[in-house]
Amino acid sequence: MTFPALKTTGIIEMTVPNGNCVQPVVFMKVCLLGRLSYLTFHVVGRVLCQLEPCGAVEVDQAVKAAKLAFGYWSKMSGMERARVMIEAAHIIESKREEIAEMEVVNNGKSITEARLDVDSARLCIEYYAGLASTLAGQHVQLPGGSFAYTRREPLGVCVGIGAWNYPFQIAAWKSAPALACGNSMVFKPSPVTPVTAVMLAEIYAKAGVPEGLFNVVQGGQETGSLLCQHPDVAKVSFTGSVPTGQKIMEMASKGVKPVTLELGGKSPLLIFKDSDLENAVRGALMANFLSQGQVCSNGTRVFVQKDILPEFVKEVVKRTQAIEIGDPLLESTRMGALVSQPHLDKVLSFVDRAKKEGATVLCGGESYVPSDPKLRGGYYMTPCVLGNCTDDMTCVKEEIFGPVMSVLPFETEDEVLQRANDTSLGLAAGVFTRDVRRAHRVVEHLKAGSCFINNYNITPVEVPFGGFKMSGIGRENGQVTIEFYSQLKTVFVEMGDVDSLF
Ligand SMILES: NC(=O)C1=CN([C@@H]2O[C@H](COP(=O)(O)OP(=O)(O)OC[C@H]3O[C@@H](n4cnc5c(N)ncnc54)[C@H](O)[C@@H]3O)[C@@H](O)[C@H]2O)C=CC1
Ligand SMILES: C[N+](C)(C)CCCC(=O)O
Asked: What is the ipTM of this complex?
């Protein structure tokens, strides 16, 4: 596929994770630099599309278009912006199935999960539309009738850089607060999952945002760096790995630009012997197997109090083995395909290494070939539970980003807290117990940005989400995120004479 207006710096090839292709040729409208163009995505074997990454010229065009749109959008009242955003949410609702199906093709996750991702995106846009009209400053009385007031102002052109695990949802979680505050955004999806962010751009355009307000540029590392270094970019919001997050922070520091970083995790889930076992098992599955285990907040270190370990392991293995793997477009499927062949290989190599280091594979951990011949080329694996794990094993220390749960026994609360916190990451953590005092005491000591008591991996858009330590900076969702997409201007107003010292 070519885009004549673009300079070619290489080709991004997108393969279909599930091995299947819904349609031989998918026609899509692609919104780039605020204009709409029709492009054709040809399927050759399992290649869904080839995209030309944007170079310096296109990145500059996108930022310029966003800057122009910012001029209009930032002058509108919050209520006016809210109206357009609500319209975008309505369009998402009406296209729920279409977007979800495309997300399945894009990412490989099950249609059931893809629908929930689309819902989360819509709710996020609705939520920030609601907040748009509440943005306000403060009035501060000063001596002699003088006063000061603060204005909450947008930052300007914000850049969003997305990961491949929640492509549509991430684009919404970043653009909704940005747009609500009066900013514009240039968004770069992961080159592995380039498709659905474009659908969001189309939806915003249809809802009536000024042309160029939300632009999608395609590309990988180079395009991402160009965006971060562009002098007219005011802020970068990134979701992805820790090493890339560090690079982004470094680039942003040159222009003293604020960053939001949603990075990796190796989160602990603490299951005490007084837990409701049924809920603890459900929680452990939710903590490990959503999106084929490719979730930053996953609770992959499952610490289980020794007394209930055999019972817990038996049940968790039974449920894991029952997870239906296969065609992600089927209603009954609960686990689809991993995102790419190299990623599948990487996850499987973590399982191999775990075995070598002494862990026991209690179930799964192998590549899986679905019986349906059209899915044969897909990147499937059986979800894995590892037993006999110890804190020094690679599977317990490193983010695997696949369906691999490590189970670790513990004896006391103090011991498990010390072990749970013994990591440079701190995105999420969870505790299962019926003892209300223990639950709150434990979360007080857990060094993680998002803590769950008796549940795991729920992310209502009304509450902030983000990490401690190397898991990131800033928050997404919730009221607080307004502060990460706006700046305060203080205005001093003198009502008397200038009291000069000179
Ligand atoms: N915590 C999380 O949510 C995620 C973690 N990961 C982890 O990272 C590993 C690698 O996955 P990748 O997709 O390669 O993650 P990545 O962090 O390299 O890429 C994420 C995004 O950043 C862009 N990017 C890469 N280098 C850049 C640079 N120098 N400047 C600006 N943008 C840049 C990519 O094109 C992509 O859009 C995974 O195997 C997984 O372990 C991946 C995705 C999400
Ligand atoms: C929605 N949830 C909690 C499963 C994942 C959200 C964070 C991410 O982008 O990985």
From this structure: 0.94
